[in-house]
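Most newcomers find our protein records easier to grasp once they have seen one. Read left to right, the backbone structure tokens trace the chain's path through space. Nothing more is needed to start thinking about how sequence determines fold. An example says more than a description, so a record of this kind follows:
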Amino acid sequence: MPAAPDVDPLPILARLDGLGIKLGLERARSLLAALGDPQRRFPAVLIAGTNGKGSTSAFLAAMAQSSGYRTGLYTSPHLEVVEERLRIDGRMIAPGRLGRLLADLVSLAERETGSPPTYFEAVTLAAFQWFAEEKVDLAVVEVGLGGRLDATNLCDPILSLITPIGLDHQEYLGNTLAQIAREKAGILRPDRPALVWIEEPEPAESVRQATAETGARLRFASDEVRIESIEPHGWTGQRVRLATPLRAYDLGVALLGAHQAINLGLAVRAAETLADLGFDRFNPTSIRAGAAACRWPGRLESIDLPGNRRLLLDAAHNPDGARVLADFLDRMGEPVDLLFGVLADKDYTEMLSLLAPRARRIVLTTPASSRAKNPAELAELLGDREGVFVEPELGKALDLALGLGGQTLVACGSIFLIGEVRRAVREGS
């Protein structure tokens, strides 16, 4: 039987993108049932949280791959192309394959429910179908928004992880850390292990209450893992020494920032837990190799530029992320210029208050999103400060920022912004 023809996923996704965000599981659940419940044909680790869930997912997937497991990884959003969201053993899904899966899903949805799925529902269900067809040994699945009502929560996790909780997406998740933590805790499962790294009392208590109701086997990795030292290696990576209840680890990682020690510690403890669940190829050697091999673009990603200059891309898009970036810049102690663009529904005032004092010059621009904040209004927040430039067109703003001649340019504020900047630099435009 001839293979099905490739399908371009972009027109399909462009149509679905206009449907917006619709939290809820009933439609996606019925579609999965019509597909034969592919999400139940592979074991999964489901990872929720506010900041760090993507890095934790990338660390754990790299460790699983280094342990010899055929590993699926599902993350969101993407930086440059949607295929980044679906990977097996580090390789992105082929565009034509993704397009076929999406086309089939949309046809099925319109037959079964009378309406198409949302963008996120479609891509998530396509990932489940692909992982099942490719018979992955383990899938690492990052929650998109919240947890309880997110389409990823329809998978059947053998282990659930929650990274640190912060204020983000309040319009969907609630206005307090306790309310947001409660939504994240929706990924917990009865009588199955859960690991969380939450140090603040309010969200920690909220997760404990949810655990009492679900009957999950909760453990706080933040109590079990001791980070003993973090040794930065300039712009090339760092060395993290940590200890779990089982053993001590001395790990070299390419990911920058002291905050990655938390994500790494949670991933290590998750790998140890998976070993207890029968994935016995996880061992100290494979964990060390996976930690060293992990790459996670757009998160304190340093890119060398001509003339011994540097571009630092960071996906910081809320105050917690901006705080992490500010801490990293303080540790590096080098003067930087800032290219900043943000979405209007973010706490841009707090973000700028953290980042602006650490920059010599600031170029304000517009991320590639209909929800972008007007950069002229951002400039008003900076008053009469010198060295502030407003250029709404992102391409021109990047040229302007690079033309300032500083040794290090930091681009941040929105993943929509850094994705475009990364593509432009990679393509040399």
Q: What stands out?
A: The two ends are 44 Å apart (CA to CA). The chain has two domains: 9-293, 301-426. The first strand starts at residue 44 and ends at 48. The CA atoms of residues 65 and 119 lie 28 Å apart.
